[in-house]
Design a protein that fits this description.
Keywords: Membrane, Transmembrane, Transmembrane helix. This protein is an alpha+beta fold. It is built from one helix and 14 strands, in the order E-E-H-E-E-E-E-E-E-E-E-E-E-E-E. About 11% of the residues have low confidence.
Length: 244
């Protein structure tokens, strides 16, 4: 600070430090400048940090959204593949895999009530074309190109035995085949008052077009469980027209 000498009335000299106004003091302005620099530095740091976090959050949200979208598409694709697989492929009891090419379903609605107060109903018939595959039924290997699957039910009026595991099928295009009993669901023994569901599977060597088979004949025998019954054997014999 500036110094000033003053002489009093007795001639003595004194040195007085002169107090400048605050706005004329250099140290004040230096302090103000330092404070401003610190404030601007803090503001810049805070702004950069906030912008970085927002950018990271946006990036994370975008990545999460992309990941969710990818997972959703992958899940949808997997479901589509599973769905296609369940519709177009299958496996027989001996682990032989087959692939369906075409299939047609019929609902014949045929019921036979002519024997022992029982009721045998044919529910539906599937005619299917497959890709050629090899199959051995014990009598040699065959090349299979199609299948007929027949679903039925039987409500028994007495204790009887159905020999549906020995049933035979004839088709309108000139084929005759025995049932594939290993892949079928047979009813066999059934007591009075009981209803059971059955499914008969027939493997065909010839199948060019599912629509070419417009009629099938399905037959098998049955007998009472009571050996004393005079009506020893009964033959079920169905002509089944296949109409859409």
């Amino acid at each position: 600070m500036p110094k000033k000498q003053i002489t009093d009335e007795n001639g003595k000299k004194f040195t007085v430090v002169e107090q400048l106004p605050w706005y004329k003091r250099k140290v004040v302005w230096i302090s103000i400048a330092g404070a401003l620099i610190l404030i601007f530095t803090l503001i810049n740091v805070y702004s950069t940090h906030t912008t970085g976090e927002a950018s990271n959050q946006d990036s994370s949200a975008t990545a999460s959204s992309t990941s969710s979208s990818d997972e959703s598409q992958a899940s949808s694709s997997a479901k589509e593949q599973d769905s296609k697989s369940s519709i177009t492929t299958g496996k027989l009891s001996d682990d032989t895999t087959y692939t369906l090419v075409d299939s047609k379903k019929y609902l014949p609605k045929i019921t036979d009530t002519s024997w022992k107060s029982g009721s045998l109903s044919i529910k539906n018939v599937y005619i299917t074309k497959t890709k050629p595959f090899k199959y051995s039924d014990g009598g040699g290997s065959k090349t299979i190109n199609g299948m007929v699957v027949l679903s039925y039910s039987y409500k028994s009026g007495e204790d009887v035995q159905l020999f549906d595991s020995q049933s035979k099928l004839s088709t309108s295009d000139g084929q005759q085949v025995d049932i594939d009993s290993f892949d079928s669901k047979n009813i066999s023994d059934i007591d009075k008052g009981v209803t059971k569901q059955g499914e008969a599977v027939f493997l065909l060597e010839n199948m060019s077009d599912v629509k070419k088979i417009n009629n099938i004949r399905w037959r098998f025998d049955a007998s009472p469980q009571n050996d004393d019954d005079d009506d020893i054997l009964h033959s079920f014999d169905f002509q089944i027209p296949l109409k859409s």
